[in-house]
Design a protein that fits this description.
This protein has 179 residues and is mainly β. The protein has one domain (25-178): Sandwich (Jelly Rolls), CATH 2.60.120. It has two helices and eleven strands, in the order αβββββββββαββ. The chain has helices spanning 2-13, 131-142, and strands at 30-33, 37-42, 50-54, 58-59, 69-83, 89-98, 101-111, 119-120, 127-129, 146-155, 166-178. The strands form two sheets. Strands 3, 4, 6, 7, 9 and 10 form a six-stranded antiparallel β-sheet that branches. Strands 1, 2, 5, 8 and 11 form a five-stranded antiparallel β-sheet that branches. The radius of gyration is 25 Å and the shape is elongated. The chain starts with a helix and ends with a strand.
């Protein structure tokens, strides 16, 4: 009898309790995985031992659903990959240009063939990020800006004629926001 009484009391009291329920979903942040921001620079034989290129403007607002209000973003990886013949040792710089200001995002340095397997900021000592460049990237993402990426560097051996060498950069960002 005691159990029935306690059960009835609980059932009677439940509607009177003030539980914190989410009624305003505009305050609930969700993770928004963005497509990688990429740049690929081909190396021509005529470039000798230097290379470089700049992407066309990349509209970062097209990387996520526009109905979301962004509340933050974070860089979670960068990768650099090479393809083609062994070009010796290479080093380079990746820049980001947003609002007319160009900032170094990261640098890389090592054997060209080491980069035939994509090197990740997370696992490789061959990549060094620049905190100012990361801040510029995050501000550009949350500000829904257009950016350009620049990739430039040097190698110790010039590419041969009719080569297919290139260097590819991928930048992985996760944003958070709400509708």
């Amino acid at each position: 009898m005691n159990r029935k009484f306690i059960a009835l009391m609980i059932i009677a009291v439940l509607p009177l309790m003030a539980f914190d329920c989410i009624t305003d979903f505009s305050s609930v942040n969700v993770s928004l995985n963005l497509a990688p921001i990429t740049a690929t620079v081909p190396l021509n034989q005529s470039s000798g031992t230097t290379y470089g290129g700049v992407t066309p403007p990349i509209d970062l607002s097209t990387f996520f659903d526009q109905s979301y209000t962004l509340t933050g973003a974070t860089l979670y990886d960068l990768t650099v990959q090479t393809k083609g013949e062994d070009l010796g040792t290479g080093s380079g710089t990746v820049t980001i240009t947003a609002n007319g200001t160009t900032t170094t995002l990261f640098t890389y340095n090592g054997a060209w063939t080491a980069f035939n397997t994509p090197q990740s900021l997370i696992t490789s000592s061959l990549i060094t990020r620049n905190p100012s460049g990361v801040n510029a990237l995050i501000n550009a993402v949350t500000g829904r800006q257009k950016v350009t990426l620049g990739v430039s560097g040097t190698i110790t051996k010039a590419p041969s004629v009719n080569n297919t060498d290139f260097i590819a950069v991928s930048i992985y960002v996760q944003a958070s926001g709400h509708k």
